[in-house]
């Protein structure tokens, strides 16, 4: 059984309350089509679970099959600097078919990032931050995206809305 190697911290991208009874951590890649499919599922379980769920996104760009994933993650980190990570997350997943640098520059403008900030992001300014997530994923046994952890334990079950919701509810029950 794979377990999360790094606790949730200030560097993480988090939606939800710190004291929520269940935490869902996703290691994702903005160019991964399976991660793109999972976005809607996670949105659904967030609606169903409400304040009982804390969701954490960590970067795991698989640059071999997804050549734009690293720059997309950099743009998301630049957006995080101005408090707009989740907006960037949505834009990048909604536009997975267009993640080349030209498109990323356009998304950066839409997010309110200056040209200098976007160029810095594309030039690797956030590579260390992204690598921190990636290495914690490796240490946690992540080898594909998306990889999900529920309360620190890797979820290898169903990732559809019904299956993931059931697994999250079971985690709440186990904690009670």
Rg over CA atoms = 16 Å
Overall geometry comes to globular
Strand order of the largest sheet: 1-3-2-4-5
Strand content: 5-15%
As residue ranges, the low-confidence spans are none
Largest sheet: 5 strands, mixed
Q: Look at the structure and give the mean pLDDT.
A: 97
Q: Structural class per helix/strand content?
A: alpha+beta
- Please give the number of β-strands: 5
User: What is the end-to-end distance?
Assistant: 22 Å
Individual helix count:
7
The SSE string, one letter per element, is: EEHEHHHHHEEH
Query: Helicity, in percent?
Result: 40-55%
Describe the 3D structure.
This protein is α+β, with helices and mostly antiparallel strands. It has seven helices and five strands. The chain has helices at residues 33-49, 69-81, 85-94, 101-111, 115-122, 127-139, 161-175, and strands at residues 13-15, 22-28, 53-59, 147-150, 153-155. The chain has a five-stranded mixed β-sheet with strand order 1-3-2-4-5. Helix 1 (33-49) crosses helix 7, helix 3 packs across helix 4 (101-111) and helix 4 (101-111) packs across helix 5 (115-122). The longest helix has 17 residues, at 33-49. The mean pLDDT is 97.
Helices and strands, with pairings:
Blueprint: E1 13-15, E2 22-28, H1 33-49, E3 53-59, H2 69-81, H3 85-94, H4 101-111, H5 115-122, H6 127-139, E4 147-150, E5 153-155, H7 161-175
Parallel strand pairs: 2-3
Antiparallel strand pairs: 1-3, 2-4, 4-5
Structure summarized in a few sentences:
The chain is α+β, with helices and mostly antiparallel strands and 176 residues long. It has seven helices and five strands; from the N terminus they run E-E-H-E-H-H-H-H-H-E-E-H.
């Amino acid at each position: 059984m794979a377990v999360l190697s790094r606790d949730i911290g200030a560097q993480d991208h988090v939606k939800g309350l710190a004291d929520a009874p269940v935490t869902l951590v996703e290691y994702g890649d903005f160019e991964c089509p399976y991660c793109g499919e999972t976005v809607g599922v996670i949105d659904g379980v967030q609606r169903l679970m409400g304040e009982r769920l804390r969701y954490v996104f960590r970067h795991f760009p698989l640059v071999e099959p997804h050549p734009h994933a690293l720059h997309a993650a950099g743009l998301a980190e630049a957006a995080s600097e101005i408090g707009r990570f989740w907006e960037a997350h949505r834009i990048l997943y909604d536009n997975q078919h267009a993640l080349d640098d030209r498109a990323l520059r356009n998304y950066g403008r839409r997010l309110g990032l200056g040209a200098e900030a976007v160029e810095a992001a594309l030039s690797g300014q956030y590579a260390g931050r992204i690598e921190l997530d990636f290495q914690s994923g490796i240490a946690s046994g992540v080898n594909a995206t998306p990889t999900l952890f529920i309360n620190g334990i890797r979820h290898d079950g169903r990732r559809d809305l019904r299956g993931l919701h059931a697994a999250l509810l079971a985690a709440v029950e186990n904690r009670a």
